[in-house]
Amino acid sequence: MRMNIDCNGCYRKIRRTLLKMQELESHLIERKQCRVSVCGVFVPQDVAIRIRNKVNRRVEILEIKEVDSNTMDSGK
């Protein structure tokens, strides 16, 4: 996702919101590139809406990569 992360307060709000979401496995917040990457089983629009409501900023969904279940099973 792409959004403006101007100050430490915005960063903390985004981080707290992501940590409270149990369906997310991990997240990465890149302040200089204004990007937030999340991993897990979730609906991207739901995550974007939650962050938008909390931070009150525009959120853009960039790219969705889906992991194939066959690929994960072959690694075992």
Automatic annotation (TrEMBL):
It comes from the Eukaryota. Signal peptide: none annotated. SUPFAM superfamilies: HMA, heavy metal-associated domain (SSF55008). GO terms for molecular function: metal ion binding. PANTHER family: OS08G0431150 PROTEIN. This is Heavy metal-associated isoprenylated plant protein 25-like. The lineage of its organism: Eukaryota, Viridiplantae, Streptophyta, Embryophyta, Tracheophyta.
